[in-house]
Structure formats: C-alpha cells, structure tokens
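Record 1 of the preview.
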Amino acid sequence: MNTDGNSINLNSRLLIILVIGAIIATGMIISFDIVEISGDSMQPTLASGDSVLVWSLPYTPGFPEENLDYGDIIVIAAPDSMDNVLMIKRIVGLENDLIEIMEGQVYRNGELLHEDYVLGMTLPLNLQKEEERMPEWDAEYAYTVPEDHVYLLGDNRLVSSDSREYGALPLTSIIGRMIFP
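->
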C-alpha cells in the first residue's frame, strides 16, 4: 500500500476545500453591508438609529443583475446635488411605469397601490421643504419612469425626500437591497 500517496492526495483535497471555503467566506463578508438609518423618511418601517443588513454583491459592476421588485427597500446613492449621501427608500416604480399621485394616494399604471406601511398621505411634494407651497389635496402628479431607472418613495411620505423631488434614479446608483430586518 502506498500510504504516502494517499496522505498527499488527502492533504491536497483538504487544502483545496479550505481555499474554496476561504474564498466563499470572503465573498460573503464583502457582499453584505450594515447601514445605520439616519432620519425619519422610512418611518414606521425603519427608525433613525436602526441598523439594516444590505445585500450588495449583485450591484457590483460586472456581477449579474439582481431582479428588483416593487416594495423592495434599497440603499442608493443620492443625486449629485445631495453631496454623496446614501439614501434608503422603497421601490414604487420600475422602468416605463406611470406613477400618479391623486387625492393623497399612489397609482402605478392606473392601479391604486395598497401600502399598509405608509405613514401619512402621499402628496406631490415634500411638505418640510415646500411648506409655503402646500398643495391642494386633490393636486395631481404624473411621472413615467425612464428606462434603467427606479422610482423611490420613503414610507413617511410627508417628510421624505425622494423621487417626487428629484425624479427616478438610475439602476447604476443602487448600492444594495435591504434583506434584514
């Protein structure tokens, strides 16, 4: 019997398994981020000071695209005008969707959204920034989401800075999707 050959073969296999395990573990570590919430725009779902786990690997350049869905909460780089701030918002519209706001309600492609998580009415603008321009309750708003963009709203609609203010954001701005809590 050749026990030395079997021993080397076993050691090689163990080494390969350890290397593969280390690569997978490293990939998992760099694929997740913990983000701390700052602000009230996602209340009641998320409060300022909460921490969330974000899956970021699918949004790395060159990685296969992640399928986004309505209601997903994502971390996204804010528009250039907001000085490299990260935002966390809920996806309400995907490319080519028509988003309408009528009588304090949101419609997507003509269908009323049932959003149990929303705090307050949905108006065409953020009241904290536009108090002097308090819109009529029946003011209407319509926006078609451009290709390769997402339309985002905060859950606390009366204070959230979101796509009503700066339009849809490009998919390339997405940092990751919240997976916990």
